[in-house]
Amino acid sequence: MIRGTKILPAGRWDAARAATSYRADYEGRFRRRMVLTLADGSEVLLDLDTPTLMRDGDGLALTDGRIVLIVAEAEPLVEIRADSMDALLKLAWHVGNRHIGAMIHHDRITIRQDPVIEKMIEGLGGHLTHVHRGFDPENGAYAAPGPANHHHHHPA
């Protein structure tokens, strides 16, 4: 079986070269080894050294020379906003203190929907908006360095 063995970070490869794509939610993109069914119906064995989050726009280099475009499937998320930057920073601390995956933007925090966390955030004065889009959370403080754990800027 053809294997996918290397992640090419988004922006560092020509996406026009993609032979096909792999679309999945966060769990489906945070893997080390599994069979992936690609958009063209073919299957490849994902075979990475460590569990890695394949981010939206990344490429998966296959052993036959092809590249697969990684696409973050839309999923239920919550955007958190606050009345001031100080208030947003405090909310970010509470989210981080609970070890919740989060996308950090200049004016908001995006997390996966979770009724318990949403109630906490509202109780702390946060404003919530439910959205449906791809989720690419920040890497943890202990994430392994290297191209598979690169930083993404998330536009407003």
Could you provide a short overview of the structure?
The chain contains three helices and ten strands; from the N terminus they run E-E-H-E-E-E-E-E-H-E-E-H-E. The chain has helices spanning 26-29, 85-97, 115-123, and strands at residues 3-8, 20-24, 30-37, 43-53, 59-62, 67-72, 75-81, 103-104, 109-112, 127-133. Keywords: Chaperone, Cytoplasm, Nickel.
What does this structure look like?
The chain has 156 residues and is α+β, with helices and mostly antiparallel strands. The chain folds into two domains: 3-72, HSP40/DNAj peptide-binding domain (Sandwich), CATH 2.60.260.20; 75-133, UreE, C-terminal domain (Alpha-Beta Plaits). The protein is 17% helix and 38% strand. It is built from three helices and ten strands. Strands 2-6-5-1-4-3 form a six-stranded mixed beta sheet. Strands 8-9-7-10 form a four-stranded antiparallel beta sheet. A hairpin with a 5-residue loop joins strand 3 and strand 4. The model is unreliable at 144-156 (pLDDT under 50). Residues 1-68 form the UreE urease accessory N-terminal domain. It is found in: Cytoplasm. Residues 137-156 are annotated as: Disordered. Keywords: Chaperone, Cytoplasm, Nickel. Its main location: cytoplasm.
